[in-house]
Design brief:
The chain is an alpha/beta fold. It starts with a strand and ends in a 5-residue tail after the last helix.
């Protein structure tokens, strides 16, 4: 059987920070599934990774006699999967300057991924459209289509658990799927604008108003009176309250109280304090600019609606206010009055008035304590990743410059 390796596109890794500081591109969640899970289901193969060196201990590569190498920034569709599966050995599928996929033996696969392949490859051009994640805002912008696609993948030929009678469903009941062990109590669910997927052991408490497309992954929870507009994804073990619109929480993060989160992406192990709000629309209705790690400058997203991007293990205090297009790095702690900078580097401690460095030892201890609350161990590989990000983020922690906004 062929072996699947999802390789990170070097031209895109920095564009997807802060989320790719701590995970391969294929571990990003868009829709219900991660990119890796999508490719595994689409191709019927178990995948491994080729990623940045500091991530390779936790996310290793696995080789076999015949290897399918697939660009991890691409999202699968039926036509693309068929073409990839039918690639001849030692052949590449490309689109202009983008390598989509290759089929190689173990020796050539190792050499190609190591940048040392000397022998030329045969190639063919892919002339059809395809979906590719190139910017952090693509994660929420593409979430509508991906929830609908994943919903079909996960529910085809299966029967949902019944919706209890104390709830109200608006729309087609075929677009509601409740996995075993999920609990939905006295709430309003609307599938007229898209499907609603409620994962295993997920919990919807009383008085929630949920509008599709919505994905609640396993063990996620909505607190009483939560209002969610699609297209929104709550990754595994996320707990939310208040109001959410077109946002993705990758997993294990909390927004447990009132406040607004819109057109945003939140990493893992984050916590948004009570009444945290983000702006997702400028007062002049112009396009929102977002910090770009690759260019080290602000980039026009070409979007009117664009909110908060928060990397893994970051937190904010009660009543925190984030401006449109704010980017928060890994393991930062944001608090205080006023709007903080639109770019907050990793391991920052403070807010609008001043920023200092969150010391590495204290950040690791905080990460370990939060993970223990969910009975998840901070492994040696996890700690090594946090330490590597600390070193990589040193050039950005110039507090005087980083606190200057582009506005």
């Amino acid at each position: 059987m062929e072996n699947l390796i999802l390789f990170d596109d070097l031209a895109i890794i920095d564009q997807l920070k802060p989320f790719t500081y701590t995970r391969p591109i294929s571990e990003l969640r868009i829709g219900i599934l991660t990119i890796k899970e999508k490719w595994e289901k689409a191709l019927g193969l178990e995948a491994s990774y080729h990623t940045q060196f500091h991530l390779s201990g936790k996310f290793p590569s696995r080789y076999a006699a015949v290897n399918l190498l697939v660009n991890a920034s691409l999202l699968p569709d039926a036509a693309l999967c068929e073409r990839i599966l039918n690639l001849p050995i030692h052949h590449a599928l490309v689109h202009q300057d983008t390598v989509i996929a290759l089929k190689l033996d173990a020796t050539n696969a190792r050499q190609y991924l190591g940048g040392q392949l000397i022998e030329p490859l045969s190639g063919s051009e892919w002339g059809l459209a395809y979906a590719q994640v190139q910017h952090v805002w693509d994660i929420f912008s593409m979430n509508d289509a991906e929830i609908k696609r994943d919903f079909q993948t996960l529910t085809k030929g299966r029967k949902s658990q019944p919706l209890p009678d104390d709830n109200r469903l608006l729309g087609d009941d075929a677009l509601l799927f409740i996995e075993e062990g999920a609990s939905v109590i006295c709430s309003i669910l609307n599938t007229k604008t898209g499907p609603i997927y409620i994962g295993k052991e997920a919990e919807v408490l009383e008085g929630c108003m949920l509008r599709g497309p919505l994905a609640m992954c396993e063990h996620s929870a909505t607190k009483m009176g939560t209002k969610i507009y699609g297209a929104t994804t709550l990754g595994p073990h996320c707990k939310v309250g208040g109001e959410i619109n077109n946002s993705v929480m990758i997993g294990y993060s909390n927004k447990g109280h009132d406040g607004f989160l819109g057109n945003s992406v939140i990493g893992e192990w984050c916590n948004l304090g009570a009444d945290t709000n983000n702006s997702n629309l400028k007062n002049n209705y112009g396009f929102v600019k977002v910090w770009n790690y690759a260019s080290r400058s602000y980039e026009d997203s070409k979007l009117q609606f664009c909110g908060l991007f928060m990397g893994d293990h970051s937190k904010c205090g009660i009543n925190t206010m984030f401006n449109t297009g704010t980017v928060v790095g890994v393991s930062s702690n944001v608090f205080g009055a006023g709007f903080p900078s639109k770019f907050i580097p990793s391991f920052a401690w403070g807010g609008a008035e001043a920023m200092t460095t969150y010391q590495l030892e204290e950040a690791v201890e905080a990460a370990e304590r939060m993970m223990q609350r969910r009975k998840v161990e901070l492994t040696e590989e996890d700690e090594q990743i946090i330490c590597a990000v600390y070193q990589q983020s040193l050039p950005f922690r110039d507090w005087e410059k980083s606190n200057k906004s582009e506005d």
